[in-house]
């Protein structure tokens, strides 16, 4: 059964471009070989961590949004667990697609100039 997932991966902040491209290729290859559908792979950049992980105070965040089955998520997490460059990862099954609520604009009441002067 195909389900929707999103995964956030935190890697070491000092990786070079070749290593980052290799990590991106690894994730896309796993999803492709397990017959998944990759929707989004975003680099969120280097951010400060809430607490040090492996003596590192910063980490590079990646967001991956894909469709797949349970075998795909198990294989992806297994490969991420074995990679020394990955500090942490978290995969979540998306139950419902939620759209951002439209911002409500309250009408601004302006007092007439005559009333404001009194």
Walkthrough of the structure:
- The protein is α+β, with helices and mostly antiparallel strands.
- The protein has a single domain, classed as Alpha-Beta Plaits, CATH 3.30.70.
- It is 30% helix and 40% strand.
- The protein is built from 3 helices and 4 strands; from the N terminus they run βαββαβα.
- It has a 4-stranded antiparallel β-sheet with strand order 2-3-1-4, with helices on one face.
- A hairpin with a 2-residue loop joins β2 and β3.
Described by strand count, sense and barrel closure, the largest sheet is: 4 strands, antiparallel
CATH superfamily membership: Ribosomal protein S6/Translation elongation factor EF1B
- Beta-strand portion reads 35-45%
Q: In the CATH scheme, what's the topology name?
A: Alpha-Beta Plaits
Helix and strand sequence: EHEEHEH
* Helical segment count: 3
Unreliable residue stretches = none
Q: In angstroms, what is the radius of gyration?
A: 22 Å
How many beta strands in the DSSP annotation? Answer: 4
Q: What's the overall geometry?
A: globular
- Supply the helix-strand structural class: alpha+beta
Function: Binds together with bS18 to 16S ribosomal RNA.
Organism: Geobacter metallireducens (strain ATCC 53774 / DSM 7210 / GS-15)
GO cellular component, one term: cytosolic small ribosomal subunit
Region (Disordered): 98-118
């Amino acid at each position: 059964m195909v389900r929707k997932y999103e995964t956030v991966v935190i890697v070491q902040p000092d990786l070079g471009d070749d290593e980052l491209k290799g990590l991106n290729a690894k994730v896309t290859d796993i999803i492709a070989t397990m017959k998944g559908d990759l929707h989004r792979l975003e680099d969120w950049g280097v951010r400060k961590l809430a607490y040090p992980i492996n003596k590192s105070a910063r980490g590079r965040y990646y967001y991956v949004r894909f469709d797949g089955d349970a075998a795909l998520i198990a294989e992806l997490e297994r490969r991420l667990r074995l990679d020394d460059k990955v500090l942490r990862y978290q995969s979540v099954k998306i139950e419902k697609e939620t759209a951002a609520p439209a911002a409500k604009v309250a009408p601004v009441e302006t007092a007439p100039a005559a009333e404001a002067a009194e």
